[in-house]
Amino acid sequence: MRFYSKRGIVIFPVLLVALIVILLSVVIQFVDLEFVTRVLGEPDVTGSLAGVIIPLAAALLIIWLIIATYYEINDRVLRIVAGPIRYTIEIERIKSVRPSRNPLSSPALSLDRLEITYSKPTGKVESRYSWNTILISPKNKERFIDELLKVNRKIEVK
Fold it and tell me: What is the DSSP letter of 68?
């Protein structure tokens, strides 16, 4: 089952503003490039190409994050996708889920988040684990938690 990320009133608008600023900077470079060509002659094309390609790559990354940030529960696995970033967590390894408004960087488009604490094997000995956390922001948090509990009843919901 797929749960899309909630789009909050802080992070989502910041991403949109960044996207607009980046795209405007590319447009302004084209306008300025014409002006520079008329006034000074032929510009350095290498520098102007980098000034277009790098911002466009950043804009595409932001679009990818906005469109493709979601969480899937399939079989016994929670798959977290945020554009090119991907995490896989075995649901049996999840210890707890609790609400959070932590602003740390995470695969979430809202500050209305869930903090998931899960164990991750460390080193070569499978019986040794470290506890990790990840922050996500599914639109329907209650249903998301219910789906996790269907797989692992031992998850502590705080």
Answer: S
